[in-house]
Amino acid sequence: MAVTVRLPGSLRDAVGGANKVEAKGATLDEVFGDIERRHPGFRALVLDDGGAIRTYVNVYIGDEDARASGGTKAPVSDGAEIMVIPAMAGG
Amino acid sequence: MSLAERLVLPADVREAIVAHAREARPNECCGLIAGRARTASRVFRVPNVADDPPRRYRMEDVSVYRALTAMGEALEEDADGHVGEPLAIYHSHVSSAPYPSPTDREYAQWPYSFYVLVSLRSGESEVRAYRILNNHPGAEKSVLEVDIVYVKT
Fold first, then answer.
1. Whole-number pLDDT of residue B140
2. Residue B137 is part of which domain span?
3. B64 vs A85: CB contact, 8 Å cut-off?
4. Edge-to-edge order in the sheet of strand A64-65
């Protein structure tokens, strides 16, 4: 399964500056693992120690919030567009 | 001569974010500013879903996703020319200075966008722009003020 992953904001720095990477995987976890193999350190930015999506990161698979469709176990179809969005927050 | 970066802010964009701040008071407002070539063109209001909105903001996730998608379709750019990303991220301070708070710096994750602050602490609105950079890993983020150039619309 080949997918496109958009990485806006600070996340682009983790993959060498591109805001879009191609990756493979049948689930979100596999897709992040594939990016991690090429860009070590990426996974820790988007997943916490327990392997769940970090509180201050949002993931969309197409128009769907990944948290509402299984979190990292969410299925990813061939050609899907995934967007990983650093939260916008402050005080 | 100033060496600061510049953000071009048309008068109607300034009026739109100040109006949003006034409507949201006593809560903080938040949203995104889209544009190109460091010139602002339109505003996306985003609901503030923080637990303590008079003192915090957290943008509603799905509204941010939709705004970024719209910016991608319109080929709008962040401050460094990346398509589909916000030129600026704005929020208001109801009673404090228009300067990034420690919380603002802690949560800042968009080094290629400007951060625009609207303060309502006095009768007059105050608007300032910054970059919040994490250019020293492990250390506190640095804040650089950006010059705002106002143009008539």
1. 74
2. 6-151
3. yes
4. A20-24, A2-6, A81-86, A57-61, A64-65
For chain B, give the mean pLDDT: 94
Q: Is the peptide bond before B102 cis (omega within 30 degrees of 0)?
A: no
How does pLDDT run across A19-56, given as a tens digit for each residue? 899 999 999 999 999 999 999 999 999 999 999 999 99
Report yes or no on B1 lying in a domain: no
CA atoms within 13 A on the CB side of A86: 24
Spell out which chain B residues touch chain A, with contact meaning CB-CB distance below 8 angstroms. Answer: 30, 32, 46, 50, 55-59, 61-62, 64-65, 68, 82, 84-85, 89, 91, 100-104, 106-113, 134
How many distinct structural domains can be found in chain B? 1
What is the arithmetic mean of pLDDT over B78-97? 97
Question: Span B63-76, mean pLDDT?
Answer: 98
Q: What is the CATH number of the domain that holds B101?
A: 3.40.140.10
Please indicate, yes or no, if residue B115 is contained in any of the structural domains: yes
Of residues A8, A63, A65, nearest to B85 (C-beta):
A8
Q: Rounded CA gap, B130 and A78, in Å? A: 40
Establish if A12 touches chain B: CB-CB under 8 angstroms. yes
Which residue(s) pair with A84 in the sheet? A59
